[in-house]
Write a structure and sequence with these properties.
By secondary structure, the protein is an alpha+beta fold. The chain contains 11 helices and 19 strands. It folds into 3 domains: 65 residues, no CATH class; 89 residues, Pdz3 Domain (Roll), CATH 2.30.42; 244 residues, 2-enoyl-CoA Hydratase, Chain A, domain 1.
């Protein structure tokens, strides 16, 4: 396995400390910032003294930080000590809850993707669903952290979600039983002479899991193995280093991804090293509107290198990098957008997504419906840095014909040369 060393995150001073500790003198350039902090201090004191009920300093400061950060973009947020601890557990692949990746949109919780084999997925929660209420309590007015806290709970306990879904005339309730969510990051099986690998998230076991899957499939199928289907549909992303490692597993050389931010430490370029774990076998990557972030890094790297064909529908379009910055006081942290990432060709997918080489719809979903499940439709999203995509010619199932998974069936046919769209092998495979 090819591994990388990543710089440790810096620690910044907590906001409360900045409010409380003013130097005796400061430069003229700082005047504006300090005047604004004075304004905050004035508002803080008046709320604390006059609000209809007593409010603690901690409650007010946490709310102020959360409001400040979440106003920047949909992916920046403040985590108190509990939320930060939960986040660290999640990256290890096991946590309590119902198993959904969410964001806030128009005051509601929007589902980016349910995680496979979790209570949410089993209950039929879909990407693009809106959660309007949790246990009959309206989500409107709650922060994202508040909403997710309400969805968490003791394994075995019940939670009722009120769901709004496009195409449904009325909201409907979904009852779920909370569970300890263990994310089985990688699933795989053989499809005859083709290896199928599904990656559900980019936690710490993602790259090792992919490598184990490839070895196992090589052993199962033997010398007749034609290639691999890498399924990244409804994969909400995760750790950048895992995305880099997985891309490197399929590449021999060249750039994987670059990041560009405001400061030099946010600018980085990640390159592949010799050693393709598949031996140059053809690869098809499946994507859809729920394919986001780290998943898009992998799809973009393999597409730009012409190492794989990308099949499915345009991805979510989350092309920003969030850095976890622990705070020196309170035990919390900021999840702060610090950079955009770019594919090897210099393409930013922010608010645009990865356009598939072969556009294949899962069913009769319209392009308008698919586009609605995207970064570009999140209020306050970072703007894109590329021209709008042209309309795609979308392949759909024949009317009246039933498929368990049309996109996968089409990908298998493409791999076996049964469709009119020719599969072009990578240079490494020639």
């Amino acid at each position: 396995m090819k591994r990388y060393a990543f710089a440790a995150l810096g620690v910044v001073a907590g906001f409360a400390a900045a409010v409380m500790l003013f130097p005796a003198a400061h430069s003229a350039a700082d005047n504006s910032a300090y005047k604004q902090l004075d304004l905050f201090g004035d508002a803080f004191e008046r709320v604390r003294a006059n609000y209809v009920r007593p409010v603690s300093e901690t409650e007010l400061v946490n709310a102020a930080i959360d409001g400040m950060v979440t106003s920047l973009d949909p992916h920046s947020s403040y985590m108190d000590a509990k939320a930060y601890a939960d986040m660290k557990i999640q990256t290890k692949g096991e946590f309590g809850g119902i198993g959904i990746e969410v964001t806030m949109e128009d005051g509601l919780v929007k589902v980016i993707s349910p995680i496979d084999d979790t209570p949410a997925a089993k209950a039929g929660i879909k990407p693009g669903d809106y959660i309007a209420a949790i246990n009959s309590t309206p989500v409107q007015g709650l922060t994202l952290n508040d909403a997710t806290d309400r969805m968490r709970g003791t394994p075995g306990s019940k939670v009722k979600l009120t769901v709004l879904r496009k195409g449904e005339k009325k909201p409907f309730d979904v009852s779920l039983t909370r569970a300890v969510v263990h994310v089985e990051t990688v699933k795989f099986h053989r499809e005859g002479d083709i290896g199928y690998i599904r990656l559900t998230s980019f936690n710490q076991d993602a790259a090792p899991g992919i490598e184990r899957a490839v070895k196992s499939l090589q052993k199962q199928i033997g010398p007749n193995l034609k290639g691999y289907i890498l399924d990244l549909r409804n994969n909400p992303g995760g750790l950048l280093d895992e995305a880099v490692d997985i891309s490197d597993d399929f590449l021999q050389s060249g750039e994987i991804v670059s990041t560009r931010g405001r400061h030099s430490q946010d600018n980085a370029k990640y390159n592949a090293h010799a050693g393709d774990i598949t031996g140059g076998k053809p690869v098809i990557v499946l994507i859809n509107a729920g394919t986001a972030s780290a998943s898009e890094i992998v799809a973009g790297a393999l597409q730009d290198d012409k190492r794989a064909k990308i099949l499915g529908m345009t991805s979510f379009g989350k092309g920003s990098v969030q850095t976890i910055i622990p705070l020196s006081q309170g035990g919390g942290a900021l999840r702060l957008t610090t950079a955009r990432y770019f594919t090897p060709s210099g393409h930013s997918i922010q608010a645009l997504g990865i356009t598939p080489d072969i556009a294949v719809a899962q069913g009769d979903e319209s392009a308008v419906k698919i586009a609605a499940q995207s970064e570009a439709n999140l209020p306050g999203h970072l703007p894109g840095e590329a021209p709008a995509k042209k309309a795609m010619q979308v392949i759909k199932p024949a009317p009246g014909k039933k498929y368990d998974d049309f996109q996968l069936s089409y990908a298998l046919d493409v791999m076996r040369g049964k469709n009119t769209v020719a599969f072009v092998k990578s240079a490494a495979a020639d």
